[in-house]
């Protein structure tokens, strides 16, 4: 297949320009301004749209096994393809928990059979996600686990975290941690501050994040283990990560697209689809996260895709579950930063493809000869109004319902095969 008349953007090298891409046997065979193919090749005219590596989402909650009514690997794959995500990392918060090699193997086989995108499971860091006893990192890694995390839970026991980092270091395994101290969160349900007070809701202080993050960084310095803070959300956390990187520690971090595109004021009149963990912060913190992304302190952008059904979201704000779906809106929401002139397109794509690939040790995230043909074509200017009823996710709890967005995926290719195509027939 030959893609022509495209705006090629390679976030790995920073190169950008007009040209085409030739795909053969699931790989990028050739690319550039004058690429050609044999007569039998199928030709796709991109019409000047952007052609880039497929997105890699490092934080996706999928209901299967145990909560298939919220999301299945099949529906998550369809949602991912529509949003330009060609690889998703599934969290271990399932029933049963992904703390056994057999369950990891089941998810991988199930994903191969039903999902149209790549699914790489992250295994539990502690048994049962209880934070008390370290999981069998070596065996889980052999079974195919790409990283180790307790998902939406934090490991509060410093000794357990120290052992996990030490053990993971010997396997060169990646520890991904949700940095939020549950004791400091307490009964809090949104960002602590004036707006929470006006709404009469208990707040979550920034220190719930920074105290846990600071502890983890010190344990990384003690052990030398590879560490990734799943999502940071405030200016103080940026300073902590920046200082750790300046000391040469093996530390990376992510940010949720929600904390880049929204702030606490968007909660408005108790909109439960915007009840998230970490919570939406003050506008000053949102701007600090954008600046940190532009400066390279923040490595990756994640969707934090967390499907919730009506029973867990159609409740008073304080009682509703945390989480929002985000696979289909990840790129469109991130393009807001491009259209506002705050972050260039190549850097946005780098944070959603190249850097995740580097951190996870995956071959994707680049436009180069021999690279996997996991590709997306999208129109960064295409305007639309999001209708949650049209989402491919089984759950519809999107914070961007009825939002005006710009940028739509036209085509998604996974391993040389087109899995999503929005072109008119």
Protein architecture, described:
The strands form five sheets. Strands 1, 2, 3, 4, 5, 17, 18 and 19 form an eight-stranded mixed sheet that branches. The protein has a four-stranded parallel sheet with strand order 11-14-15-16. It has 13 helices and 19 strands. 31% of the residues lie in helices and 24% in strands. The model has no long low-confidence stretch (mean pLDDT 96). The longest helix is centred in the middle third of the chain and has 17 residues, at 207-223. The chain has helices at residues 73-82, 101-114, 137-143, 158-171, 182-185, 194-199, 207-223, 235-246, 257-261, 283-295, 310-313, 330-339, 345-360; strands at 2-10, 15-24, 27-32, 43-45, 50-53, 55-60, 85-90, 118-121, 123-124, 148-149, 174-177, 190-191, 203-204, 226-229, 251-256, 300-302, 375-385, 404-414, 417-421. It has 425 residues and is α/β, with parallel strands linked by helices. The chain is globular, with a radius of gyration of 21 Å. The chain starts with a strand and ends with a strand. It has two domains: 2-50 and 373-393 and 405-421, Urease, subunit C, domain 1; 54-360, TIM Barrel, CATH 3.20.20.140. Helix 2 (101-114) runs parallel beside helix 3 (137-143), helix 4 packs across helix 7 (207-223) and helix 7 (207-223) runs parallel beside helix 8. Pfam families: Amidohydro_3, DHOase. It catalyses: (S)-dihydroorotate + H2O = N-carbamoyl-L-aspartate + H(+).
